[in-house]
Amino acid sequence: QVQLVESGGGSVQAGGSLRLSCAVIGNPYYNYCLGWFRQAPGKEREGVAAIDSVGVTTYVDSMKGRFTISQSNAKNTLYLQMNNLKPEDTAMYYCAADSPAWICETVAGDKKQWGQLFGYWGQGTQVTVSS
Description:
Layout: E1 3-7, E2 10-13, E3 18-25, E4 33-39, E5 46-52, E6 57-59, E7 67-71, E8 77-82, E9 91-98, H1 111-117, E10 120-121, E11 125-130
Parallel strand pairs: 2-11
Antiparallel strand pairs: 1-3, 3-8, 4-5, 4-9, 5-6, 7-8, 9-10, 9-11
């Protein structure tokens, strides 16, 4: 059973930065995908970025250039570095995991697909960006 615990959220002003972390506990998979998703108030959950077991990354187009996903060398922590934050980035941010690695490709696509593929989810960490 994979457990995911997010941290690092908070309140920042527009233009600021935050680094989210997700502790990955009990991952039994050799070939896996770890992803970040977010859900703003009144909106559907959407993909942000993903990274697979060999370090290949996938980003939603609107996040490219501002957000960077990475994982620790021990592969037990997932990170999301967020720079130049905007008020529209305000949301609950979730990390998710599952296998195999190819499901990372779905993060930038329809929720109907990745929603069925990522079986393990954290409780989320709130990010609030003020103007």
